[in-house]
Amino acid sequence: STFDLIIKGGTIATASDVYTADIAIKDGKIVQIGTSLDGAEKVIDATGKYVLPGGIDSHVHISQPSGEGISMADDFETGTRSALFGGNTTVLPFCLQEKGTPLRQTLNAYHKLAEGNLYTDVSFHLIVSETNPTLLGQELPALAGEGYASFKVFMTYEGLRLNDAEILKTLDVARSTGSTVMIHCENEDAIRYLIEKHEAAGDVAPRAHASTRPAAVEREATHRALTLAEIADVPIVIVHVSNGQAMEEISRARARGLKVFGETCPQYLMLTAEDLDGMDWEGAKFVCSPPPRDKAAQEECWRGIETGVFDLFSSDHCPFKYDDERGKKFPKGKESFRHIPNGIPGVETRMPILFSEGVMKGRIDLSRFVALTSTNHAKTYGLYPQKGTISIGSDADIAIWDPSVKRTIRHAELHDGADYSPYEGIEVTGWPTTVILRGSVMVSDGELVGKKGDGQYQTARTRTPNSL
Ligand code: DUC
Ligand code: ZN
Ligand code: ZN
Ligand code: ZN
């Protein structure tokens, strides 16, 4: 037949339009959009459903080394399987630079872990943890031209943080190569000071994690990152923004003419620091950085989603088991919050939460939902328009959402490798029931029909470099 697959009668939404039409797919690409299309081997009736670009989660951690004896709860198989069931067709995990090891060697190891195990497509960000001349002068520029077009730098974590001079040097490479830099903004020295004070006072329960990383440390670092980007004259992404004070820094920088992208995550809409309280170390389940704040900050983040301070809504999926042999969320001895690994799972629940709380509750429209969860990720990280939209010539990465599904989030029904969900018990309306990756049906009415290995690695393109 003429087409491999036709999706009939659904309400299609892109970042700019919402309309009813049929979509015809051939050889993994969208080849026609119109009415009364026929001539396909297979037809999916999407009447009464929303037909959206597959989600792109540009901030996930999979199989990332996380410190002495600590393993992440997801490998590429479980991480991408969970992503797929949450309506995603592409995820962007991080490749952490190992000090003293060529980045390419570490990247090869990640590719080995991914190969044959993917349920979604993936593209990699690099994490720059040191700034030797070979790395900055040769490795990063070469890799930027080979499809590794984004990297993350940290202003916090001993052994990982870069100082301002190092960040400037790294930003300089981004400018000349057209790479995109993501910055984790928290003031490490201030955090150290607060941790020492809390430990000295015997205040070591999980809640102290939030107290030792207050909004001020995020606000200051966000301001400093934006200042460094202004000096280096390069666009940046401020990742995982948790509150209004950091958002104001982004808005002020934009008013000065800076190109800056803002990202927020479900934890800053749905959780508060009070979740870090709780019996028997339960609060560890909600330890992430920056920490969840308060109800007012949640509302501020919603305003940012509505008004455009945020371009990106990512999960920051960073899964650790709570209670397990390797269960470092629940460390033997529970000596201090300081030993709880930072990060929580959420790749499968990211879009259902925003769909339910955002679209169904009338805070954002469908097009804004698509922009925040798919299109803007593809544009920011060099995958657009192959990924991130429904248009002729784009990959047929599509999620069909049933807005009538009512579901209570239960970890037992999710597909990740962790042993809990921070969103347990939250009720959502709407779920992606059928997910299509490059024309292959991967999830059909909630059932897995795709195979591991169906996902592929995708190279990303750099921006047009500017030489100042
Ligand atoms: N930063 C992240 O991006 N993810 C988890 C922990 C962290 O600090
Ligand atoms: Zn971070
Ligand atoms: Zn305290
Ligand atoms: Zn992260």
Automatic annotation (TrEMBL):
Cite a GO CC annotation. cytosol
Q: Which cofactor does it need?
A: Zn(2+)
Where does the record place the modification N6-carboxylysine? K152
Tell me which domain of life the UniProt entry assigns to the organism this sequence originates from: Bacteria
Q: How is it modified after translation?
A: Carbamylation allows a single lysine to coordinate two divalent metal cations.
Q: Which Gene3D superfamilies match?
A: Metal-dependent hydrolases (3.20.20.140), Urease, subunit C, domain 1 (2.30.40.10)
Which Pfam families does the annotation name? Amidohydro_1
Q: Which InterPro entries match?
A: Amidohydro-rel, Hydantoinase/dihydroPyrase, Metal-dep_hydrolase_composite, Metal_Hydrolase, Metallo-dep_Hydrolases_sf
Quote one Gene Ontology molecular function term.
metal ion binding
Q: What's the protein name?
A: Dihydropyrimidinase
Per the UniProt record, the source organism is Nitratireductor aestuarii
